[in-house]
Here is the input.
Amino acid sequence: MKKISENIINKYAADHNLSLIQLNLGCGGRPIKQWINIDNYDYEKNDSSRSGSHYDIKMDIRNLDCQDGTVDKILLVHVIEHFVRWETINLVRHYRQKLKIGGQLIVEMPDLHECIKIYLQGRNAPHMKTPIGNISIGRTQFYGNQWDELDYETHRYVWDINEFTTMLQTEGFKIIKANHDAVFHIKGRDMFVVAEKI
Here is the structure.
């Protein structure tokens, strides 16, 4: 039986007097004020990748319960790489449906090419401490968290910036910004893309 939409997100925005519907999807321990922070997973103490799970709404980000054409902005910070390629394309289509004309999709995530460059530096590459040892900050992005036994923390597909922006354009977005000037994580390694629904 198909679930009937209750427009939970629109109701939350109205109940909290939000003039804009801005969604921080897969927020984890990084909620943003004046945004609606959404995650589908509660914090687990063995999760060394996140600092918590501080959401306003618990919801599967693959099926946003809100009216089509009502969302102003969607932010995904280190979320897309947790999905296989075909599922990411389906996500982008779903998000485009929910966004207003001119609404923005904002994505920060690792760039495959930049991760490879870092990995190839070998011992000279910056490393991060993990429960299974020090690992290059390039290599960690290929597979994500492979040590905490949490399936949703693993990485499934790492895009490069050209492939990702080309896909967005194919799916009806105009690229406003696409660079490696990451805002939330590691500049140079991570891409930062802002796309507008047309």
